[in-house]
Amino acid sequence: MAKKNIFSERRSIDQQAEAWFYRTDDRVPFEAFSNQQEKTKTGEEMLDAIRRKIRTRKHHRLWLNVAAAAVILITSGTFGYRAYLTSAPSIARQVWVSYAANKGEFKEIRLPDQSTIHLRPGAKIAIAQPFIQQNREVKLVAGEIYCEVSHDPEHPFLVHSSQITTQVLGTKFIINNDPLAADIRVTLLSGKVAVRNETVQLGILLPKQQLSFNRVSETVKLDSTTYLVENWLNGEYILDDVPLKSFAQTFGNAFSMEVRFQQKALENLPVSIQFYRTDHPKNILDQLKLIHGLNYQIKGKEVILMR
Fold it and tell me: Residue 92 has what pLDDT?
């Protein structure tokens, strides 16, 4: 009975919040509270409730939702709360057109709204057709992309990458959805984005922040970053604590090579490495050898890693 009451109350709160949300106009500034005293009092009550629930460690996921709602409502305005209210997108009902960047190919796609998506080698995406509907939707199936999104408050831009969705109005950001890596990573370069999975708001990013979502544990890590657009466009790769098989795929895609393992156990060896697409492949492999004690052989377009 208690559980039922909690979810009944949750639905009531959501309905009230949604009604409030749709009374506002995204195109003009607004104030959600009648005065500063009401705003302060509401914020204190919500945060106090959150702290009490966190201390009891009961209904942890439910109160992560409440915490996200409090932060969004108080600090992020209409955009953040729109992201919180957005339900799981109906991807199955969409018609999608697929694009892929081949090995060694850096591809640029211009969308009907003048937004641009840059694909690194091996990246695969799908774009909803027609593109401009209630939302503008893209699926990142695999790989890494950089998006420059045209501002359009009437049509939020959504990127679905496996278990998470990133929502923006207009901004520049990078998403890495490498199926061989443990984390899906969203890096914000300018503007503001909201990231969520099917059930909960994961975070709202500000410029120079990176959100990492672990596929298995579904935990979230937020870091600061100094990464620049120019670095990405110039082909800088930063692989941080990824399995060697992820490096092998990224390296192979960047330099149009096939990477194989002499010992299968090496596939999950964690490695960290940085390189540019303009580097000579042998120099990168020498770096891997120096840092992680790996040997290699190059036979034409094939690389064999070993110990």
Answer: 56
Helix (H) or strand (E) holding 226: none
Q: Which CATH architecture has domain 235-306?
A: 3-Layer(bab) Sandwich (3.55)
Chain centre to alpha carbon of residue 256 = 26
What pLDDT does residue 53 have? 42
CA angle 188, 191, 197 (to 5 degrees): 55
CATH no. of 91-229: 2.60.120.1440
Of residues 127, 147, 123, 156, the one with CA closest to residue 139: 127
How far apart, in whole angstroms, are the C-alpha atoms of residue 150 and residue 95?
22
What are the average pLDDT values for consecutive 10-residue runs of the chain, which has 307 residues? Answer: 51 54 44 53 50 41 40 42 44 83 96 96 96 95 97 94 92 95 95 92 94 95 90 93 95 97 94 94 94 93 96
Q: Which pTM value belongs to this model?
A: 0.70
Same-fold call for 91-229 versus 235-306: no
| Cβ–Cβ under 8 Å, residues 175 and 159 | yes
Tokens 């999104």 belong to 149
Ordered by start, the domain boundaries in the chain are: 2-85, 91-229, 235-306
